[in-house]
Design brief:
β4 and β5 form a beta hairpin. Among the domains are: about 130 residues, no CATH class; about 130 residues, Histidine kinase-like ATPase, C-terminal domain (Heat Shock Protein 90). α3 packs parallel to α5, α4 runs antiparallel to α5 and α8 runs parallel beside α10. The protein starts with 10 loop residues before the first helix and ends with a strand. The chain is α+β, with helices and mostly antiparallel strands and about 400 residues long. The N terminus is likely disordered. It is about 70% helix and about 10% strand. The chain has a five-stranded mixed beta sheet with strand order 1-2-3-5-4. The relative contact order is 0.06. The protein has eleven helices and five strands; from the N terminus they run ααααααααβααββαββ.
Length: about 400
Protein backbone atom coordinates (compact mmCIF):
# COMPACT_ATOMS: atom_id res chain seq x y z
CA UNK A 1 0.00 0.00 0.00
CA UNK A 2 3.06 2.25 -0.20
CA UNK A 3 5.16 3.57 -3.05
CA UNK A 4 8.19 1.39 -3.81
CA UNK A 5 10.79 3.71 -5.31
CA UNK A 6 13.47 1.06 -5.42
CA UNK A 7 11.71 -0.09 -8.57
CA UNK A 8 12.30 1.76 -11.86
CA UNK A 9 10.01 4.75 -12.29
CA UNK A 10 6.78 3.58 -13.86
CA UNK A 11 3.07 4.21 -14.08
CA UNK A 12 2.68 2.41 -10.75
CA UNK A 13 5.31 4.55 -9.03
CA UNK A 14 3.79 7.70 -10.47
CA UNK A 15 0.38 6.65 -9.15
CA UNK A 16 1.67 6.22 -5.61
CA UNK A 17 3.66 9.47 -5.74
CA UNK A 18 0.53 11.36 -6.76
CA UNK A 19 -1.41 9.59 -3.98
CA UNK A 20 1.25 10.57 -1.43
CA UNK A 21 0.96 14.23 -2.42
CA UNK A 22 -2.76 13.99 -1.76
CA UNK A 23 -2.12 12.39 1.63
CA UNK A 24 0.32 15.21 2.44
CA UNK A 25 -2.25 17.91 1.76
CA UNK A 26 -4.94 16.09 3.73
CA UNK A 27 -2.64 15.37 6.66
CA UNK A 28 -1.30 18.91 6.98
CA UNK A 29 -4.76 20.40 6.55
CA UNK A 30 -6.33 18.19 9.26
CA UNK A 31 -3.36 18.78 11.55
CA UNK A 32 -3.81 22.54 11.17
CA UNK A 33 -7.55 22.26 11.90
CA UNK A 34 -6.85 20.13 14.98
CA UNK A 35 -4.26 22.63 16.24
CA UNK A 36 -6.64 25.58 15.83
CA UNK A 37 -9.45 23.66 17.54
CA UNK A 38 -7.17 22.78 20.49
CA UNK A 39 -6.24 26.43 20.89
CA UNK A 40 -9.88 27.56 20.79
CA UNK A 41 -11.44 25.01 23.16
CA UNK A 42 -8.66 24.03 25.56
CA UNK A 43 -9.45 24.95 29.18
CA UNK A 44 -5.89 25.14 30.45
CA UNK A 45 -2.33 25.78 29.41
CA UNK A 46 -1.23 22.30 30.40
CA UNK A 47 -3.96 20.66 28.37
CA UNK A 48 -3.17 22.86 25.38
CA UNK A 49 0.56 22.19 25.64
CA UNK A 50 0.02 18.44 25.88
CA UNK A 51 -2.32 18.37 22.90
CA UNK A 52 -0.12 20.56 20.74
CA UNK A 53 2.98 18.59 21.73
CA UNK A 54 1.33 15.31 20.78
CA UNK A 55 0.27 16.85 17.47
CA UNK A 56 3.79 18.19 16.83
CA UNK A 57 5.31 14.79 17.55
CA UNK A 58 2.89 13.14 15.10
CA UNK A 59 3.67 15.68 12.36
CA UNK A 60 7.43 15.29 12.90
CA UNK A 61 7.13 11.51 12.84
CA UNK A 62 5.16 11.65 9.60
CA UNK A 63 7.76 13.82 7.88
CA UNK A 64 10.85 11.94 9.13
CA UNK A 65 9.51 8.39 9.25
CA UNK A 66 6.16 7.83 7.58
CA UNK A 67 6.60 9.84 4.40
CA UNK A 68 10.23 8.84 3.96
CA UNK A 69 9.39 5.20 4.51
CA UNK A 70 6.57 5.41 1.95
CA UNK A 71 8.91 6.88 -0.66
CA UNK A 72 11.64 4.33 0.03
CA UNK A 73 9.34 1.35 0.47
CA UNK A 74 10.90 0.85 3.95
CA UNK A 75 8.38 -0.94 6.16
CA UNK A 76 10.48 -0.44 9.28
CA UNK A 77 10.13 3.35 9.04
CA UNK A 78 6.40 3.23 8.32
CA UNK A 79 5.77 0.78 11.16
CA UNK A 80 7.70 3.03 13.56
CA UNK A 81 5.60 5.98 12.40
CA UNK A 82 2.33 4.10 12.99
CA UNK A 83 3.37 3.25 16.56
CA UNK A 84 4.32 6.87 17.31
CA UNK A 85 1.15 8.15 15.65
CA UNK A 86 -1.12 5.90 17.75
CA UNK A 87 0.65 6.92 20.94
CA UNK A 88 0.40 10.63 19.99
CA UNK A 89 -3.33 10.33 19.22
CA UNK A 90 -3.92 8.53 22.51
CA UNK A 91 -2.04 11.24 24.45
CA UNK A 92 -3.96 14.00 22.63
CA UNK A 93 -7.29 12.33 23.45
CA UNK A 94 -6.31 11.93 27.07
CA UNK A 95 -5.45 15.64 27.30
CA UNK A 96 -8.71 16.73 25.68
CA UNK A 97 -11.66 15.14 23.93
CA UNK A 98 -10.83 17.45 21.03
CA UNK A 99 -7.99 15.01 20.36
CA UNK A 100 -10.54 12.60 18.94
CA UNK A 101 -10.34 14.67 15.76
CA UNK A 102 -6.98 13.05 15.21
CA UNK A 103 -8.73 9.69 14.84
CA UNK A 104 -9.52 10.66 11.23
CA UNK A 105 -5.81 11.01 10.58
CA UNK A 106 -4.98 7.90 12.58
CA UNK A 107 -7.41 5.55 10.82
CA UNK A 108 -6.57 6.85 7.34
CA UNK A 109 -2.82 6.57 7.91
CA UNK A 110 -3.15 3.07 9.28
CA UNK A 111 -4.70 1.94 6.00
CA UNK A 112 -2.23 3.87 3.90
CA UNK A 113 0.88 2.55 5.65
CA UNK A 114 -0.21 -0.93 6.81
CA UNK A 115 1.44 -3.81 4.95
CA UNK A 116 -1.56 -6.15 5.03
CA UNK A 117 -5.32 -6.07 5.59
CA UNK A 118 -4.93 -8.00 8.84
CA UNK A 119 -2.33 -5.51 9.99
CA UNK A 120 -4.68 -2.63 9.21
CA UNK A 121 -7.58 -4.22 11.10
CA UNK A 122 -5.35 -4.98 14.08
CA UNK A 123 -3.91 -1.44 14.20
CA UNK A 124 -7.39 0.14 13.98
CA UNK A 125 -8.57 -2.07 16.85
CA UNK A 126 -5.56 -1.19 19.00
CA UNK A 127 -6.00 2.54 18.37
CA UNK A 128 -9.72 2.40 19.18
CA UNK A 129 -9.13 0.50 22.44
CA UNK A 130 -6.30 2.87 23.40
CA UNK A 131 -8.48 5.94 22.79
CA UNK A 132 -11.34 4.40 24.79
CA UNK A 133 -8.98 3.65 27.68
CA UNK A 134 -7.62 7.21 27.54
CA UNK A 135 -11.13 8.63 27.81
CA UNK A 136 -11.85 6.44 30.80
CA UNK A 137 -8.61 7.27 32.56
CA UNK A 138 -9.07 10.99 31.98
CA UNK A 139 -12.59 10.77 33.40
CA UNK A 140 -14.15 12.98 30.75
CA UNK A 141 -16.91 10.43 30.16
CA UNK A 142 -19.68 10.24 32.78
CA UNK A 143 -20.59 6.78 34.00
CA UNK A 144 -24.02 6.89 32.42
CA UNK A 145 -22.40 7.71 29.06
CA UNK A 146 -19.98 4.79 28.99
CA UNK A 147 -22.33 2.64 26.94
CA UNK A 148 -23.06 5.26 24.27
CA UNK A 149 -19.38 6.23 24.04
CA UNK A 150 -18.36 2.58 23.73
CA UNK A 151 -20.99 2.16 21.03
CA UNK A 152 -19.72 5.22 19.18
CA UNK A 153 -16.16 3.91 19.34
CA UNK A 154 -17.33 0.51 18.08
CA UNK A 155 -19.22 2.14 15.21
CA UNK A 156 -16.14 4.25 14.42
CA UNK A 157 -13.99 1.13 14.41
CA UNK A 158 -16.33 -0.79 12.12
CA UNK A 159 -16.66 2.19 9.79
CA UNK A 160 -12.87 2.68 9.71
CA UNK A 161 -12.29 -1.00 8.95
CA UNK A 162 -14.94 -1.15 6.22
CA UNK A 163 -13.79 2.11 4.63
CA UNK A 164 -10.15 1.02 4.89
CA UNK A 165 -10.84 -2.32 3.22
CA UNK A 166 -12.77 -0.60 0.43
CA UNK A 167 -10.03 2.00 -0.15
CA UNK A 168 -7.41 -0.76 -0.10
CA UNK A 169 -9.36 -2.74 -2.69
CA UNK A 170 -9.70 0.33 -4.94
CA UNK A 171 -6.00 1.12 -4.56
CA UNK A 172 -4.96 -2.43 -5.36
CA UNK A 173 -7.20 -2.48 -8.42
CA UNK A 174 -5.68 0.81 -9.55
CA UNK A 175 -2.21 -0.61 -8.99
CA UNK A 176 -3.10 -3.76 -10.93
CA UNK A 177 -4.40 -1.66 -13.82
CA UNK A 178 -1.20 0.38 -13.75
CA UNK A 179 0.91 -2.78 -13.82
CA UNK A 180 -1.19 -4.22 -16.66
CA UNK A 181 -0.69 -0.97 -18.57
CA UNK A 182 3.07 -1.26 -18.01
CA UNK A 183 3.06 -4.84 -19.28
CA UNK A 184 0.97 -3.85 -22.28
CA UNK A 185 3.36 -1.03 -23.14
CA UNK A 186 6.34 -3.36 -22.69
CA UNK A 187 4.68 -5.98 -24.90
CA UNK A 188 3.88 -3.37 -27.53
CA UNK A 189 7.51 -2.25 -27.47
CA UNK A 190 8.73 -5.84 -27.82
CA UNK A 191 6.32 -6.43 -30.71
CA UNK A 192 7.49 -3.25 -32.40
CA UNK A 193 11.10 -4.36 -32.05
CA UNK A 194 10.24 -7.85 -33.34
CA UNK A 195 8.27 -6.43 -36.28
CA UNK A 196 11.14 -4.11 -37.11
CA UNK A 197 13.62 -6.99 -37.01
CA UNK A 198 11.27 -9.11 -39.11
CA UNK A 199 10.90 -6.28 -41.58
CA UNK A 200 14.67 -5.84 -41.80
CA UNK A 201 15.11 -9.58 -42.38
CA UNK A 202 12.38 -9.62 -45.03
CA UNK A 203 13.88 -6.62 -46.79
CA UNK A 204 17.31 -8.25 -46.76
CA UNK A 205 15.82 -11.42 -48.24
CA UNK A 206 13.98 -9.37 -50.87
CA UNK A 207 17.13 -7.48 -51.82
CA UNK A 208 19.13 -10.73 -51.95
CA UNK A 209 16.53 -12.22 -54.30
CA UNK A 210 16.49 -9.10 -56.47
CA UNK A 211 20.30 -9.10 -56.70
CA UNK A 212 20.28 -12.80 -57.58
CA UNK A 213 17.63 -12.31 -60.25
CA UNK A 214 19.26 -9.26 -61.84
CA UNK A 215 22.83 -8.31 -61.05
CA UNK A 216 24.16 -11.81 -60.39
CA UNK A 217 22.71 -13.12 -63.65
CA UNK A 218 24.08 -10.14 -65.54
CA UNK A 219 27.55 -10.65 -64.12
CA UNK A 220 27.37 -14.35 -64.98
CA UNK A 221 26.57 -13.38 -68.57
CA UNK A 222 29.48 -10.97 -68.64
CA UNK A 223 31.85 -13.64 -67.32
CA UNK A 224 30.68 -16.16 -69.92
CA UNK A 225 30.95 -13.62 -72.74
CA UNK A 226 34.42 -12.56 -71.59
CA UNK A 227 35.56 -16.18 -71.66
CA UNK A 228 34.17 -16.51 -75.19
CA UNK A 229 35.95 -13.31 -76.27
CA UNK A 230 39.25 -14.79 -75.05
CA UNK A 231 38.60 -17.82 -77.23
CA UNK A 232 37.72 -15.57 -80.19
CA UNK A 233 40.93 -13.60 -79.74
CA UNK A 234 42.91 -16.83 -79.59
CA UNK A 235 41.34 -17.81 -82.95
CA UNK A 236 41.98 -14.27 -84.26
CA UNK A 237 38.26 -13.96 -84.96
CA UNK A 238 38.03 -10.19 -84.52
CA UNK A 239 34.45 -9.92 -85.78
CA UNK A 240 33.09 -12.44 -83.25
CA UNK A 241 35.10 -10.85 -80.46
CA UNK A 242 33.73 -7.43 -81.38
CA UNK A 243 30.14 -8.69 -81.31
CA UNK A 244 30.61 -10.27 -77.92
CA UNK A 245 32.33 -7.17 -76.53
CA UNK A 246 29.28 -5.19 -77.63
CA UNK A 247 27.09 -7.68 -75.75
CA UNK A 248 29.31 -7.29 -72.69
CA UNK A 249 28.85 -3.52 -72.84
CA UNK A 250 25.09 -3.85 -73.29
CA UNK A 251 24.79 -6.32 -70.40
CA UNK A 252 26.93 -4.12 -68.16
CA UNK A 253 24.76 -1.10 -68.95
CA UNK A 254 21.63 -3.10 -68.14
CA UNK A 255 23.20 -4.23 -64.88
CA UNK A 256 24.03 -0.64 -64.01
CA UNK A 257 20.44 0.39 -64.74
CA UNK A 258 19.14 -2.50 -62.59
CA UNK A 259 21.44 -1.45 -59.74
CA UNK A 260 20.10 2.09 -59.90
CA UNK A 261 16.57 0.73 -59.98
CA UNK A 262 17.21 -1.35 -56.87
CA UNK A 263 18.63 1.63 -55.01
CA UNK A 264 15.60 3.69 -55.97
CA UNK A 265 13.19 0.76 -55.25
CA UNK A 266 11.80 0.90 -58.80
CA UNK A 267 10.23 -1.88 -60.81
CA UNK A 268 12.56 -3.96 -63.01
CA UNK A 269 14.31 -1.79 -65.56
CA UNK A 270 13.17 -4.17 -68.33
CA UNK A 271 9.57 -3.14 -67.56
CA UNK A 272 10.32 0.57 -67.37
CA UNK A 273 8.26 2.10 -70.17
CA UNK A 274 7.49 -1.32 -71.69
CA UNK A 275 5.08 -4.21 -71.24
CA UNK A 276 5.91 -7.80 -70.37
CA UNK A 277 5.85 -9.01 -73.98
CA UNK A 278 8.47 -6.43 -75.04
CA UNK A 279 10.65 -7.23 -72.03
CA UNK A 280 10.55 -10.97 -72.81
CA UNK A 281 11.39 -10.33 -76.45
CA UNK A 282 14.48 -8.33 -75.46
CA UNK A 283 15.46 -11.00 -72.93
CA UNK A 284 15.13 -13.76 -75.54
CA UNK A 285 17.25 -11.83 -78.07
CA UNK A 286 20.01 -11.24 -75.53
CA UNK A 287 20.09 -14.86 -74.32
CA UNK A 288 20.12 -16.09 -77.92
CA UNK A 289 22.98 -13.76 -78.83
CA UNK A 290 24.98 -14.77 -75.76
CA UNK A 291 24.52 -18.53 -76.03
CA UNK A 292 23.71 -19.29 -79.65
CA UNK A 293 20.49 -21.04 -78.58
CA UNK A 294 17.29 -20.54 -80.47
CA UNK A 295 14.89 -18.75 -78.14
CA UNK A 296 11.30 -18.69 -79.37
CA UNK A 297 8.79 -16.37 -77.69
CA UNK A 298 5.04 -16.90 -78.13
CA UNK A 299 2.89 -14.45 -76.19
CA UNK A 300 -0.87 -14.00 -76.05
CA UNK A 301 -1.07 -10.24 -75.57
CA UNK A 302 -4.69 -10.48 -74.47
CA UNK A 303 -3.44 -12.59 -71.58
CA UNK A 304 -0.66 -10.15 -70.61
CA UNK A 305 -3.24 -7.34 -70.66
CA UNK A 306 -4.89 -9.06 -67.67
CA UNK A 307 -1.75 -8.87 -65.52
CA UNK A 308 -1.12 -6.42 -62.71
CA UNK A 309 2.30 -4.80 -62.41
CA UNK A 310 3.32 -7.11 -59.54
CA UNK A 311 2.33 -10.17 -61.62
CA UNK A 312 4.38 -8.90 -64.58
CA UNK A 313 7.42 -8.65 -62.30
CA UNK A 314 6.89 -12.20 -61.05
CA UNK A 315 6.63 -13.65 -64.57
CA UNK A 316 9.61 -11.65 -65.87
CA UNK A 317 11.80 -12.77 -62.98
CA UNK A 318 10.63 -16.36 -63.45
CA UNK A 319 11.56 -16.23 -67.16
CA UNK A 320 14.98 -14.73 -66.34
CA UNK A 321 15.71 -17.44 -63.76
CA UNK A 322 14.47 -20.21 -66.07
CA UNK A 323 16.62 -19.05 -69.00
CA UNK A 324 19.64 -18.70 -66.72
CA UNK A 325 19.18 -22.29 -65.53
CA UNK A 326 18.79 -23.47 -69.12
CA UNK A 327 22.01 -21.73 -70.10
CA UNK A 328 23.93 -23.14 -67.13
CA UNK A 329 22.63 -26.69 -66.88
CA UNK A 330 20.45 -27.83 -69.79
CA UNK A 331 22.93 -27.92 -72.70
CA UNK A 332 19.92 -27.08 -74.85
CA UNK A 333 19.79 -25.89 -78.45
CA UNK A 334 16.30 -24.45 -78.33
CA UNK A 335 14.05 -23.04 -75.65
CA UNK A 336 10.46 -21.90 -76.03
CA UNK A 337 8.86 -19.20 -73.85
CA UNK A 338 5.07 -18.95 -74.00
CA UNK A 339 2.42 -16.94 -72.17
CA UNK A 340 -1.25 -17.89 -72.37
CA UNK A 341 -4.47 -17.67 -70.39
CA UNK A 342 -6.03 -20.79 -68.93
CA UNK A 343 -8.99 -20.94 -66.57
CA UNK A 344 -8.60 -17.47 -65.09
CA UNK A 345 -4.82 -17.86 -64.75
CA UNK A 346 -2.10 -16.30 -66.87
CA UNK A 347 0.47 -19.01 -67.45
CA UNK A 348 4.17 -18.72 -68.30
CA UNK A 349 5.89 -21.85 -69.66
CA UNK A 350 9.61 -22.18 -70.41
CA UNK A 351 10.37 -25.44 -72.27
CA UNK A 352 13.89 -26.43 -73.34
CA UNK A 353 15.16 -29.44 -75.30
CA UNK A 354 18.13 -30.06 -73.04
CA UNK A 355 19.14 -32.93 -70.75
CA UNK A 356 16.13 -32.54 -68.45
CA UNK A 357 15.88 -32.18 -64.70
CA UNK A 358 16.77 -35.22 -62.63
CA UNK A 359 14.15 -36.96 -60.52
CA UNK A 360 14.18 -35.71 -56.94
CA UNK A 361 16.53 -32.83 -57.73
CA UNK A 362 16.69 -30.27 -54.92
CA UNK A 363 15.66 -26.70 -55.70
CA UNK A 364 18.47 -24.17 -55.64
CA UNK A 365 18.39 -20.63 -54.31
CA UNK A 366 16.98 -19.23 -57.55
CA UNK A 367 14.04 -21.64 -57.73
CA UNK A 368 13.27 -21.19 -54.04
CA UNK A 369 13.22 -17.43 -54.53
CA UNK A 370 11.02 -17.83 -57.59
CA UNK A 371 8.57 -20.00 -55.65
CA UNK A 372 8.47 -17.40 -52.89
CA UNK A 373 7.61 -14.68 -55.41
CA UNK A 374 4.88 -16.81 -56.94
CA UNK A 375 3.39 -17.66 -53.54
CA UNK A 376 3.31 -13.96 -52.66
CA UNK A 377 0.83 -13.31 -55.51
CA UNK A 378 -1.24 -16.46 -54.84
CA UNK A 379 0.18 -18.17 -57.91
CA UNK A 380 1.30 -21.70 -58.76
CA UNK A 381 4.66 -23.05 -59.89
CA UNK A 382 6.00 -26.41 -61.05
CA UNK A 383 9.23 -27.73 -62.55
CA UNK A 384 9.16 -31.08 -64.30
CA UNK A 385 10.92 -33.19 -66.92
CA UNK A 386 9.24 -32.87 -70.31
CA UNK A 387 8.10 -35.80 -72.39
CA UNK A 388 10.69 -36.41 -75.09
CA UNK A 389 13.43 -34.68 -73.09
CA UNK A 390 14.18 -31.31 -71.60
CA UNK A 391 12.59 -29.42 -68.73
CA UNK A 392 9.39 -27.41 -68.37
CA UNK A 393 9.00 -24.57 -65.90
CA UNK A 394 5.37 -23.60 -65.44
CA UNK A 395 4.25 -20.49 -63.50
CA UNK A 396 0.64 -19.34 -63.28
CA UNK A 397 -0.71 -16.19 -61.62
CA UNK A 398 -4.35 -15.08 -61.22
CA UNK A 399 -5.61 -12.92 -64.07
CA UNK A 400 -6.97 -9.49 -63.21
CA UNK A 401 -10.74 -9.32 -63.74
CA UNK A 402 -11.78 -7.30 -66.76
Amino acid sequence: MMAETHRPRSVRTGFWERSLRGWDLTFYGMSAISAVTLVLVSTGARTLATGLSALAVMVSAYVTLGRRGALRGDHRLTTAYLVIMMVAVTVAVRSSTVGTLLLFIGFSHIWFFAETRRGGIAACTVLTVAVGAALLVEGDVPTDQLGPVAGQLAVSLVFAIMLGLWITLVSERSEERAELLERLEATQHELAVAHHAEGVTAERARMAQEIHDTLAQGFASIVMLAQTVIADVARTDAAAATRRLALIEETARENLAEARGLVAAFSPVALDGADLADALDRLAQRVGAETGMTVVVEIDRAATARLGRADEVVLLRAAQEALTNVRRHAHATEVRVTISEDGGMVRLAVHDDGVGIGAGSAEGYGLRGMRSRVDAVAGQMSVRAAEGGGTVLDVAVPAVAR
